[in-house]
Write the structure tokens for this entry.
Amino acid sequence: MIAGCGYVGRRLAESLGKTGISGLVRSEESSRELAGMGITPVRCDLGRTAVGLPSTRGTDIYYLLPPPKTGVVDSFMENFLQGLEGSGPPRRIVYLGTTGVYGDCRGEWVDESTPVNPKADRALRRLDAEQQLQAWVRHQDTELVRLRVAGIYGPDKLPLQRLRAGKPMVAERHAPWTNRIHVDDLVQVLQAAMVRGRNGEVYNVTDGQPGNMAAYFNRVADFAGLPRPAVIDPSAGEQALSAGLRSYLAESRRIDNRKMLRELGVELRYPTLEQGLAACFSVR
């Protein structure tokens, strides 16, 4: 089962071959789309407490669903785990989380031994989901592998709308360190984590080549043939930048991916941003 069968989940299903795969989605439209792809749709609203799931006993579950947009608790995860109580313990759950749980590390390198220190609500919700899962599997015959994933980019997941709108950005010298992973490489890691990830372990998922957010926007603009964003002073950010973008600009860290490469045995297709963007625009 792929819980949250959207942008990443559908690519994962394609890579797995679709046969024998169910995708948990919320809307009737998404259900029809999955059925058209040959994926068995499971329509389920995790915003409700009474969650009914088909039998999950002994199955493999990829949990890719983002948490609610507000608060510091992932109520979707809470409701999903309640649903599993009635459908049977799966063999293994691979959870897609975020490197945001490390918080602001002032540009320092971060590995899996770095203490979590989330500050933003979005990261607190993700840490809450991890903790719920850890507590749940302690009392079940279920394995758990947690992935802390950097910013995902790929075809149809680039800031082109923002660039076309001519929205500004701080200068590269003022932008924090950020980390990325191409969606195709993330799909590889998800599959490897299900097969080779060690039970109870956490793996950072990134290409291992940190950059900065302003440079990322500039390179996407260059590949797309669009003007680079106008540069603004950081002090003007509150008026010119969205609250969400400002929260990302407030954190800086460089993510080490050596444990992922070593233990999961993944060979990245796009180990650099240049290679990943070239692939994105070659299919457009």
Observations:
- DSSP finds eleven helices and 15 strands in the chain.
- The longest strand covers residues 92-98.
- The mean pLDDT is 94.
- The two ends are 30 Å apart (CA to CA).
